[in-house]
Amino acid sequence: MTVTASARRKARHYAMQALYQWQIAGASLNTIEAEFHADNDMSKTDVEYFRDLFHGVAKNLDEVEAAYIPHLDRGVEELDPVSRALLRMASYELKSRIDVPYKVVINESVALAKKFGPTDAYKFINGILDKTAADLRAAEVAADRQQ
């Protein structure tokens, strides 16, 4: 399968939902992943990317959270579950998937926050990820701002 933007978008969509479920239910990663494959049509999804995001966040949770927590104006436990899942996923992407431009990571996360998050959560997500990207991808952000 050729990896398309829409296949990546679907992968992020499902990964965010899987992370949400993992946070709420606490089931094993493999159980949740198997449910997603059984319950969803993954034929137009970048399944490898879904798996990387989902398992990558869980395996590197302390590092992932350390990337965005300094920018929060509240405790991480006060975040709604959708925002927490999105911040975790996007921080992982910013940290580990340098093949993906930081603007794509932020834009995709904002779009998911608009769709699934509480009212105006997308503004909060955008602000936190903008600061997180400046930390994790300083050269890329600086080059982008000079254009």
TrEMBL record:
Cited InterPro entries: NusB-like_sf, NusB_fam, NusB_RsmB_TIM44
Keywords: RNA-binding, Transcription, Transcription antitermination, Transcription regulation
Statement: the UniProt record of this protein carries the keyword Membrane: no
Keyword Transcription regulation set for record: yes
The NusB/RsmB/TIM44 domain, residue ranges: 9-132
Transmembrane region(s): none
Protein's job: Involved in transcription antitermination. Required for transcription of ribosomal RNA (rRNA) genes. Binds specifically to the boxA antiterminator sequence of the ribosomal RNA (rrn) operons.
Family from the record: Belongs to the NusB family.
Name of the protein in question: Transcription antitermination protein NusB
Originating organism: Microbulbifer halophilus
